[in-house]
Structure prediction request, 209 residues.
Amino acid sequence: MDRFADLRLKMVETQIESRGVKDARLLEALRRVPRHLFVPENRRAEAYEDEPLAIGEGQTISQPYIVAFMTEALKLRGRERILEIGTGSGYQTAVLAELAAEVFSVEVIGELSRRAREELAGLGYGNIRFQTGDGSRGWAENAPYDGIIVTAAAEDIPAALPPQLKDGGRLILPVGIGAQVLVLIVRKGKKFHRTELLSVRFVPLVTVA
Ligand code: SAH
Prediction:
């Protein structure tokens, strides 16, 4: 067992199961994915703590519980095609790649995308495709998606995203400036049902002109 495996089991038990996350496949994935490899080397000791961490370029890796909560909201069974906006460290990407068939991940900062690609390739994930650019437009070429997850907050839901969902598809994202809330959109035919789930704090979604 690597020396972080014990910390990882504790993280899942005390931060994630204890707060009500139940999806067994997700809990297994969280016990498996080496989160410490997605934080800067000098922060590895803190990788399994109950908080977000700085990853450089002014960005953060999300708190473990938030990764778990957002992923559970997508209700993944293994056959899905998922769009992720905000690759960041690549940790959330790895969790998605464990649970879905294909992951398409967009990151606006080239250096972060490059580092995440390298880490994820090193871990052997072969079901992820990356793009550097403004994810608020989605990634239309590979649409429609069973799930879309955005890990940076916008004032409003980017208009390009809901139409890239399949019928029955789920979109989860933080919405708001300052006070933010996680919003879940579920597509039912031409209708988009909206639910507000949890107060959160994310870095802002950058829009590139
Ligand atoms: N899921 C990541 C979260 C990183 S923070 C993790 O846990 O590591 C949010 C990320 O969204 C940052 O890397 C930021 O650069 C990126 N981002 C911000 N605006 C974006 C946009 N318009 N398109 C794509 N990525 C964006």
